[in-house]
Every structure is written in C-alpha cells, then in structure tokens.
Amino acid sequence: MTKANQLEKLNLEMSQCSKCALRAGCQRVVFGDGNPQAKIMFIGEAPGKKEDELGIPFVGSTGRILDKMLESIQLRREDVYLTNICKCRPPENRDPLPTEIQTCSIWLEKQIQIINPKIIITLGRFALNYFLPQAKISAVHGIILEINTEKIGTIKIFPLHHPAAARINRQTRALFTQDFQKIPTILKQIKKEQ
Ligand code: URA
After folding, report:
1. 121 within domain boundaries
2. Cα 167 to averaged position of ligand 1 atoms, centre (Å)
3. Atom of ligand 1 nearest to the CA of 162
4. Taking the model in full, what pTM does it have?
5. pLDDT at position 194 over 80
6. Is residue 151 over pLDDT 90?
7. For the domain that residue 113 is a member of, what is the CATH number?
8. Is residue 194 part of a domain?
C-alpha cells in the first residue's frame, strides 16, 4: 500500500475517534496536510478555529506565517507534511491537556510511522515536550536533537518556536525566522547522509 493510501485509511479511522472529550466540542478531526512522501514533518499544537472549519491544519493567520516562511526557503506546503499533536480543536483554543495529548498520541505515532520523515520540526512547546518532556524551548530551539523513542525509534527533531508566538512577539519572531533559515542546510545535510 502506498503512503498516501495508508494515510487515507488512517484518516478514516481517525475521523471516527471519540476517545477524548475534544471531539464532542469541535466540528471535525484535522488529520494533516501535505506530501505523504515528505522528508520534513511539521508538528504543531492543535487546530484553531479556521482549521476546525476547513479540516486542514495551519490555514488561519498562524498558517499564513508558516506558508510565508516556507516560501522564504523555496518550499511549499506540498513539499512537507503538516500536522498537530492534537487533532481536534480545544474549546476557545485553550492549551491541550496532558490527557488529551496522551490519548491523541496514537494517531500521531501512526502518522510518523507511515510518513517516516527524515526530520520532525516541532512548533512550540507542546510539540517539543511531546518528544522531550523536560526540554525548554528557549534552550533548544534551532538545534537538531536526535532522540530515541520506544514507539517511533531514533528520529531527529528540530525544535522551533510556534508561529503564533512569533506573530505576537517581535523577539520570538526574530528567533523563529533565524531558525527557519537553517532548514535548507539541514535538508542538504540529510541528502548527503542518504
Ligand atoms: N493551526 C494549527 O493547525 N496548529 C497550530 O498549532 C496552530 C494553528
């Protein structure tokens, strides 16, 4: 089965998920978007209002920042895969709860297993702490970390600030932009290693 077919099958399963209370309070499950063959997978926090309306991650104002940043390094959404830790919108965009993250993790693990990216770019602290619970984004942003997880195996992660934080804070925006510009070099390095 192709990766696209595997994701399609997974999305169908995900769409029927009601393992936590978030599903009852949102319009739809927001699976992911982009290229199933992508080498880079971006993982955010949870869908916002627009994402919940359209069923596509990163399509609101935060998504526009991400699109612009991708464009600045000559990448398009179609070149990468985008998803979130939580697939359902928390009410009023509140932070996802640890139990919701834990419950939803079965879907993220399966997505990572199917896509098998060369590198995961975590956006914000929730995505970072999913992989490294103790890590502080202020300390590890813009650095490649190689981690070993029981379910996924060894994987490189590249933590970035969340684009929503970059939108509201000038200093965070500068760091986010600076870190983002490292992606082409990382991609070149990954290619060399293959
Ligand atoms: N939109 C998403 O899909 N995820 C986020 O983390 C923020 C906005």
Report:
1. yes
2. 13
3. 6
4. 0.97
5. no
6. no
7. 3.40.470.10
8. no
Mutation probe of ligand 1 site: the residue of 26, 56, 62, 121 with most atoms within 8 A of C-beta: 62
Look up tokens 């991650």; give the residue.
57
Nearest to 126 by CA among 22, 47, 23: 47
Tell me the pairing of strands 153-160 and 119-123: parallel
State the residue range of the domain holding 67.
3-188
Mutate to test the pocket of ligand 1, among 28, 29, 51 (most ligand atoms within 8 A of CB): 51
Return the ligand 1 atom nearest residue 45 CA.
Answer: 6
Atom of ligand 1 nearest to the CA of 57: 3
In a domain, 47, yes or no: yes
Residue 5, pLDDT score? 98
Confidence of residue 170 (pLDDT cuts 50, 70, 90): very high
Query: What is the C-alpha to C-alpha distance for residues 165 and 128, in angstroms, rounded to an integer?
Result: 14
Domain membership flag for residue 193: no
Question: How many structural domains is the chain composed of?
Answer: 1
**CA distances (Å), origin 33, targets 77, 79, 132, 163, 177:** 8, 10, 24, 17, 22
Digit-coded pLDDT (tens) for 77-133:
999 999 999 999 999 999 999 999 999 999 999 999 999 999 999 999 999 999 999
Question: Ligand 1 mean position to 192 CA, how many Å?
Answer: 31
Helix (H) or strand (E) holding 154: strand 153-160
